[in-house]
Amino acid sequence: MDNFIKEVEKDKILVIRTWVSSSIVVKIINDYSIDKDLFIKRYAFGFLEHYIKAVKNNQKIEDCSVIIDFIKYLKKLNIKSSELFLLCSAFKTSLIDFAFKLEIQSIELFEKIVYYFEGIFSAILDIYSKSIAQIQSALNKSVDIVDKYVVMSKTDLNGVIMSVSSAFCKISGYEFFELIGKTHDVIRDYQATPNLYENLWSTIKSGNIWKGDIKNIKKNGNVYWLRTTIHPNFDSSGNIISYDAIGEDITSQVELRNQQNLLAEQSKSAAMGEMISMIAHQWRQPLQAVSILIQKLPLTKMIDGEISDEMLDTVVSQVSSQLEYMSQTIDDFRDYFKPNKRKEEVFIKDVVEKSLDFLKYLFKIHSIKVNYQNNSDSSLEIYLNEIVQVLINLIKNSCDAMIEKNIENRVININTYENKESLIIEFEDNAGGIKSDVIHKIFDPYFSTKSNKNGTGLGLYMCKTIIEQHSDGTIDVYNTNHGTKFIIKLPLGV
């Protein structure tokens, strides 16, 4: 039966033609003045499609709107039950005739053709015997539900609105009469996406379906977004006669995405501010050294009466060395913040050490000891600058916590190792840990544990975003006997 159905799907037109051309069907069409084109293009093909789905997927009559519409149409013509049987039996005969054309003469196949037909016909007859009022009531109920909850509109070829659903009126804030006869210019924000509508009209005028997100403006001036599908409607000759649009309200999704983008920008600005502060600290010592060296020259001349070439060469060499160091910090800063959307294959040891280099001034002036142990020799593909940002943020948070709490022996332990699937990075400090009633909040945006209110509350949020969304990893936090431990897992072999 499955192979037979596959052949039917390949040659639907032949089956339909055989059915409609039978003398019984021709007589019924003529006797009841049935629209032959409507019968063939909608109902005959719909009947065949339902038969195929009933065989393949056990589709029920009530799940096929075309069959329901077909029954309603025949009921309106007052076709007798006996003539309904003849009409449907002709369809069964066309299937058997098609089997003979395929040179399939299997009693088992004929029995299955009849079996599925009888199941479909009995369901049709059951529905047909019921009052049309019952069918109409069910259909009207469905229409009411669609009208209430689905954002829909129908326009003519010029984009003039012919009808809208109640849901369309509700979301836009306009009444029905305020929209009919107008174009969608009433609600469109054309400045948001200037090229969108050119593409939209080009697509649907060519007879294709257009899908996209559209920004609209309510009557009260508020903005809303619809994920919209627009498809053309055709007449029997294949000419476009109107357009239907169905929209899904995605305003909350767009607002969430915009909020996430804002958080990302704020986090980037905060990170840049911290990096500038780090560079300022790193520059302090070499600037002092350069100042001392420069002051040494006039002092030497005043005492000795001259400056030897040897001394001049020494001072120039030492100044150049300090300036080279300062230049390197600028290069590091530029590399850190340049857009980097290409993954790089790196070893985690190099990534950690690069992060520690940014913070070495902080370790020195605050007497913070960092113990780093690496037990990973596998490379991984990551967005380098983003992971460096994560490591710097976690390490600096530990430093800030130890400084704020006046911890005497300040220690940060960093371990990197791997298992079969992941590379693991562990950070542990001895700053006493995070309060148990707030530890679950530390990855929330704008939440900060820093008492001096200097924290933006965005650092750990962005760490989580980078690790989970950009790197397909995980990040967790725990309190230990001595402080706080962060565990990052990044997939190997990405």
Report on the structure:
With 494 residues, the chain is an alpha+beta fold. Helices cover 56% and strands 17% of the residues. It contains 17 helices and 12 strands. The chain has a 5-stranded antiparallel beta sheet with strand order 2-1-5-4-3, with helices on both faces. A 5-stranded mixed beta sheet has the order 7-9-10-12-11. It has a two-stranded antiparallel sheet with strand order 6-8. Helix 2 packs across helix 6. The chain is elongated and about 130 Å long. The two termini are 46 Å apart.
Question: How are the SSEs placed, and which strands pair?
Answer:
Layout lengths: L1 H9 L1 H9 L2 H9 L4 H22 L7 H12 L4 H21 L5 H23 L2 H18 L1 E5 L5 E4 L1 H7 L3 H4 L16 H10 L4 E8 L5 E12 L5 E10 L1 H54 L4 H29 L6 E4 H11 L1 H6 L2 E7 L4 E4 L1 H21 L5 E9 L3 E8 L29 H12 L3 E6 L4 E8 L3
Parallel strand pairs: 7-9
Antiparallel strand pairs: 1-2, 1-5, 3-4, 4-5, 6-8, 9-10, 10-12, 11-12
